[in-house]
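During the second half of the funding period, the structural biology subgroup turned its attention to how the target accommodates small molecules. The most pressing case was zinc ion, which had performed well in the primary screen but for which no bound structure existed. We therefore specified the complex as follows and requested a full 3D prediction, including the ligand pose.
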Amino acid sequence: MTQLKFQQAPPPTEKDMMPTLNKVVTARNCYYYLALIERFWRGMDAMTRDQQRLYLARAEFRYFLWVRAFDAKRMPTPPLDIAFMWHTHLLSPLRSYEDLALRIPSARSVLNTNMPLENLHREKNGPTKDTLMKWERIFGATGEPYELNANNMVYGNYCNACILCKHEIRLPWTTYVGYRYGENTTPFDHPCGINRQINFLDVARMKLEYDLTPKGDTGPPVAGTLLDPSGIPRQKPNTMVPLIVPLVHIEPQNEMDYSYELQIEDKLKSLGKKYEYDANELLYAIRTCYQGNPSPFSVDLIHAVARQRKFYDAAISMDWSTANAFASAIRRYHDFLMLMKKDSSLVAVPTIEIDCAWHTHMLFSGPYRQFTRNYLERVINHDDTIPEPSLKKFTSDTCRAWTLSPTRYWIAVRKKKEILKKTFALFFEIHFIFTLL
Ligand SMILES: [Zn+2]
């Protein structure tokens, strides 16, 4: 294995000369973030495709166990697979907020806890005794090993309670993977299924059925409908949700969205135009958060991890050997946020170095939400599922916005004689934002 790039200490920085944003987007944290994803992808590269699939399916489930058991005071440093899933979830800041704050009971404290990047880096060669002790105390009864690897991941069973009838669903991991990757749809015995059988497309369907049902005095917790466009909980819940009857028979099974579309369209005929926004929101939510996704989360984390690979390949090939590389990333990220502040309709597309600082910021979910709400008046979403044609347009919009922007650090670095003056001006601006907090 070739040497890893980010497994030493971060490059030394002169105190007070490095820009930081919101206290958490620092050169050190960006470095630790790159170290985390390098360690994860190097591990993946050493596995076969089948092993990778098994690893991801188990990692997603282990992250769920992590969320369910979360208690900020008692948690160990997370193992690599859980840390990577947690990070992937946070890279969808609106969906993860819905899941952790509004949909999964008692998960809110996960959101208020920062990703322990420094501890993850410190324990890169293995967990401390303290970490293992805490793991054992919280997860010992589950039989889950601290470190998930190619040698231990085939052992044990997927085991989770049915969301509707609470009856246990238990399957060997190797069988579960087939369901999770859509390769196996064979029904297995289960008491609340049609003919007392279900497969994992049914599990996804039942998740939506469960979420369409009101709970206590809160509205139905349908993922994708709980926030307004600025990322804060809707004052007035989606009006279409309570009118929809959960579907039990869906044919073909993998077109759940189509079956609901027919019902939504039918309702709209009598309801009129004022329901159109909510109808579209609900249908989009069903398509992106429920369709084919039996996991407890609104993001299909296994497939979201796969999308992160492109970012890793691009980020790792950049030169991050000096502190200046990180300083530049942080300054440009700051300017990038300024672009979005000036034009709230702009869907800004980041460069890789900006994205590195942005990802780091999102791993501190509480500060990220607070900062973007304070300064941009909305929680900035990060969406890596934008299709290619739209992405091209948004990239060209972003380029135009950069050329019109007065805070062009990238021009400052070209004019070397002026650099000191301009750089200090920017430092001030970044620190200015940070001191306001
Ligand atoms: Zn059931």
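Two results from this model are relevant to the next phase. Confidence is low (pLDDT under 50) at residues 409-437. The first strand starts at residue 157 and ends at 161.
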